What does this fold into?
Amino acid sequence: MKKIFFLVLTLFIILNVHSQSNTVSKNISANLSLESTYTTYSMASDSFDKNLKSSYDNSMMYALVAGGSKGIGYAIAEALAKRKYNLILIARHSDSLLTAKNKLESEYNVHVDILRLDLEKENAADSIARWCTEKDIHLKVLCNVAGFGGARDYLSLPLDTLRYMVRLNVESCMALSLTLLPLLEKNAPSYILNVASMAGLAPIPVKNMYSATKSAVVFFSYSLRYQLKKKHISVSCLSPGPVFTKPEIEQDTKKKLGWFGVQMAVPQKKVGEIAVRKTLKGRMMIVPGTLSKITSFIIRILPRRWIVAIYSKVGNK
Ligand SMILES: NC(=O)c1ccc[n+]([C@@H]2O[C@H](COP(=O)([O-])OP(=O)(O)OC[C@H]3O[C@@H](n4cnc5c(N)ncnc54)[C@H](OP(=O)(O)O)[C@@H]3O)[C@@H](O)[C@H]2O)c1
It folds into this structure.
């Protein structure tokens, strides 16, 4: 018992030292705030409403949350609104976008724009960048959140669904980061927050492609952070364990990981708050929750063949 306690304590200390060392260049300011008085509503799809241009005050700081109408994306949007960032939320469904907009505008007195777009589509990133440039948006934060997973994976999903997963999880994150780079550079110091997953830290046979796409997001973020450092753009990567944003995730976690999975889960609001706080502090890898931090540390240092064996045992339940 004593040995286990000391092992966990040592891992925890190592982990904390490791995350402290992640602090990026001090040039990136930690606390940004401003007051927004705008409440204008715009609903744009592929054809954007050019008449809205005059309603913008270009001194306002904006954060764009791709996948910001629900779940972790909404929690991130809320944590940004709390810090007085105006928001651009992107999702496919207008009802949840409108609900998010109304809630955030009334609670935090910020300006929220909503764009109804499917991020999987090839021209989505170009359309968003064009829209932001036309509106002369002062983009300070880009959050790539939208992703697709589910309990079924590679061997049981049709090719079209797997292609959708790759396009949404990897391509949209890669494309938005590139097309919005000129705006982020213009408004530097600025931030990119990519949402991966703990599933991206090691291979998981039953979540084969999901895990592969999320590991692409992790690697992409590490390299991009290095490449953009001189431009004063800080890149962070959120890799949460389970977050019960839908009943299916809670059921699947309980079935596969039982008590341990429930203990590891972190409420979505807390995930959003931690993600935004650490992103603005310039941290690279963000894993909310102590148990998730310890687990993610262990799965990153264990040999991959061991991890695959462990995951396939629990995952096949
Ligand atoms: N929940 C977890 O346990 C967990 C754990 C680790 C990592 N993650 C990652 O965290 C991210 C968010 O997960 P979540 O559970 O919060 O998801 P969620 O509750 O399903 O929310 C996803 C958000 O993205 C939007 N979205 C989905 N597909 C889209 C598309 N093709 N185009 C545009 N917008 C789209 C959704 O709105 P519409 O449906 O209206 O489009 C919604 O706003 C994902 O990348 C996921 O892989 C989740």
